[in-house]
Design goal:
binds (3R)-3-hydroxy-3-methyl-5-(phosphonooxy)pentanoic acid; 8-stranded mixed sheet; 2 domains; globular; Alpha-Beta Plaits; 12 strands; Ribosomal Protein S5, domain 2; alpha+beta
Length: 337
């Protein structure tokens, strides 16, 4: 019999970003065109409780979005979660209905990888419900299949690389370094906290229509080993330059896809200019931007307070979230219901 299970999982910020599926592979297999590298972030997380029971007459999914009351999930979001639940039902020969309740510690849908923390927490909670003894590799693969590929990085502790692999069994994330290895910080600077116009799912599906897409994949062959090296050598100067290049290229591809996708807004540019300015004064902070307008500032912990204080003075900044590198997905005993 399945048990009630709860998992907590962090979002992750990509230093090298996953953008686009590998040509010739099926969408459902979520095999990326390029490898990606990320760091788990401790203050942006999802907690999810799952319970299969004969008491439930239909599947029920509830999400408590940041600062709001719990909402019942319907439509395509419901279908996406249930498709993943069905994978576990099939694996475990179960036909019981499920109740899922999920809580996010941060604004969803604003380019802070809510789907990465959400789908990794869901996968771990489902595995926990059936007491499945999974190796990390298996957990990463199952999480990747949930829909948000980047979620497969959140299950591993600290600094993580998702290797492309050549099929579904070989595409998963591994650790580069544990969270305590480097005292980096990720200051999430929120300049807009509403739902974004285009999901990353849409972005992946049109990425190959950009004339710059193939060029980006070529450039990544050199950049990926350099980012690994920057982490291993704790070289923020090198890492910073590489992550900014990578983020700009992703957005260049998005902006030149057909139809084009524009994620940046005035606030995004304001933070980018701010960082260029403070670096002139010797304060090292570098930007990276996911599928939304909000900016992640990567800096050393020792500079975090200072940068946070200064960035909050900018006209478009709504609020910030301070993060340290952290462990990946875990089961916990405190249930949400
Ligand atoms: O994993 P998805 O489908 O949510 O896409 C993630 C896309 C980016 O956040 C922009 C990049 C990344 O690697 O996290």
């Amino acid at each position: 019999m399945p048990v009630k299970a709860t998992a907590i999982s962090p979002a992750n910020i990509a230093f090298i970003k996953y953008w686009g599926r590998k040509e010739g592979t099926e969408d459902k297999d979520v095999i990326p065109s390029n490898g990606s590298i990320s760091m788990n972030i401790d203050n942006c997380y999802t907690v999810t409780t799952t319970e299969f029971s004969s008491r439930y007459k239909e599947d029920e999914i509830w999400i408590q979005f940041f600062g709001q009351n719990p909402q019942r999930v319907t439509g395509s979001q419901f279908e996406r979660v249930i498709a993943h639940v069905n994978r576990f039902r099939q694996l475990n020969n179960c036909d019981l209905k499920i109740k899922v309740v999920s809580e996010n510690s941060f604004p969803s849908d604003a380019g802070i990888a809510a789907s990465a923390s959400g789908f990794s927490a869901l996968t771990m909670a489902l595995a926990g419900a059936f007491k499945m003894k999974l190796k990390l590799k298996e957990l990463s693969i199952l999480t990747r299949l949930a829909g948000s590929g980047s979620a497969c990085r959140s299950v591993i502790d600290g600094f993580v690389e998702w290797r492309v692999g050549y099929n579904s069994e070989t595409s998963y994330a591994i650790q580069i370094a544990p969270p305590e290895f480097w005292d980096l910080a990720d200051l999430v600077v929120v300049v807009k906290d509403e739902k974004k116009e285009f999901s990353s799912l849409h972005g992946h599906s049109v990425a190959h229509t950009s004339p710059f897409y193939k060029r980006r994949l070529e450039l990544l062959k050199k950049r990926i080993p350099l980012v690994r090296k920057a982490i291993n050598k704790k070289d923020l100067f090198l890492l910073g330059e590489l992550i900014e290049e990578d983020a700009v290229e992703l957005h260049l591809v998005a902006m030149s896809s057909k139809p084009p996708i524009f994620y940046w807004n005035e606030g995004t540019m304001e933070v980018i200019h701010f960082l260029r300015q403070i670096r002139k004064n010797g304060l090292l902070g570098y930007f990276t931007i996911d599928a939304g307008p909000n900016v992640h500032i990567i800096c050393l912990q020792k500079d975090l307070e200072k940068i946070d204080k200064e960035v909050k003075r900018l006209k478009n900044v709504l609020f910030t979230i301070k993060n340290s590198p952290c462990v990946g997905t875990r089961l916990i005993s405190k249930h949400l219901f």
